[in-house]
Sequence to fold (271 residues):
Amino acid sequence: MRADRSGEDKAPREIVSFVRRGERLTPSRQSAWDRLSDQYVLDPPRGSRDTVPGADASLDLQEVFGRRAELVVEVGTGLGENIVAAAQSHPQRDHLAVEVYRPGLAQTLNRIDRAGCPRNLRLLPLDAQRSLPALLPEASISELWVYFADPWPKARHHKRRLINPPFLDAVLPLLSDRATFRLATDWAQYAHHMRRLLDARAELELLHPAGPRPEGVTSDTLPVDLAHTGWAPRFEGRVKTSFENKGGGAGRLVWDLAYTRVPRPSVGDPL
Fold:
């Protein structure tokens, strides 16, 4: 007779901001994966899930890149347009693309190939919130980018948004003093959500406190208490991606944000 297991304790299901889609690759993406993944895709030991690093996993940036340089991290790189262009344009910096979607990683490898295979870029196929604090040392990131993350517009799904307290608690200690945190979304409600959470963090300061709202009319609903100032101009280093084009095609405005990491107190400074 099968034992009744209904009363056993079960580990609570973790809330994640992403949905794993189909993993099948087109022939061109499969070719890029076969040729370049060993060189560019990091493969730390896994933990309880294939998107979470194991307890003993670590990442030695000097070993990975063969040098010490400023590190730019993009969370949710999609098809790799921004991070590959940045690596190609800024060879003096190192770049880390964090993305769990395998076809997106394979397309990024395709772009890397077409860009001449820059050496200052690596891909991390893990959950950013749970992997970056485990793999990177404190104050190691010079720039952090989150562009067009899933807005999860339904109220019951807001807990799945990437920009939420658990993610901020995980990544803000990794920003170096005066590091830049750049974000963009084409959903006004998500922009309001991000402003409310990020403005409240003592570790961050707005880079453009007097910056106006984006110009134009948007097709989505503006929150009544949406801030009129504090918005960043479009970052010239941000490539216009298919995700941004989709929002523009739907008549939505793009909301850019930029913050700087407040310097940590020096030893002996008054609190």
The chain has a mean pLDDT of 90. The chain has one domain: 27-261. The domain at 27-261 is CATH 3.40.50.150 (Rossmann fold).
